[in-house]
Amino acid sequence: MNKIGRLNIPENEILKYSEVEKHFVDNRNVIKVSNNGIVDFSIIIDLIKKAEANPNIYGILIKKPNDKNWILKYIGQRKSKYIKDRLRQHLIKKHEKTGAQLKRVNNELKNGNEIGIKLFAVEPDELRQFYEQKLLNNLETLWNKHK
Questions:
Q1: Are 53 and 120 in contact, with CB atoms under 8 Å apart?
Q2: What is the pLDDT of residues 56-105, one digit of tens each?
């Protein structure tokens, strides 16, 4: 007789998903990375250098000129040592084969909107994919293809 192993982990108690979701839903602490229609990537580099933890989940947000609130458009994840490269692909320069959001970011900038990001560090790093998928399942992000 085959036995199937099972491990039932109460998500909210141990994995604290609600803390991650709250961070991305909260309109405070958005890091504005655009100025006068251009993304200033040095803001991101400085922020990551000074961070106490290495971020591995990120959100891209926009804010229209007369709005107070930021709108979450995209959620992504990357190994923490590659997060600057991935954000650069989304915000500055991308290879055609990536699913980067550079075209959409540039369209938002041309329309006079601001670009912001949110960063979050999950440890161990291997859990970043779990949290990204949970965020995609629970939050509305217009730019993500896979949900």
A1: no
A2: 999 999 999 999 999 999 999 999 889 998 998 999 887 667 778 999 99
CATH match for 29-138 among 1.20.120, 1.10.260, 3.90.120, 3.40.1440:
3.40.1440
pTM for this predicted structure: 0.89
Amino acid at 35: N
Distance in angstroms (rounded) separating the CA atoms of residues 68 and 48: 26
Give the span between the Cα atoms of 50 and 113, in whole angstroms.
27
CA dist., res. 115 & res. 30, Å (int): 9
Helix boundaries (H) for the chain: 17-25, 41-50, 83-91, 102-110, 128-138
- The Cα–Cα gap between 86 and 95 comes to 11
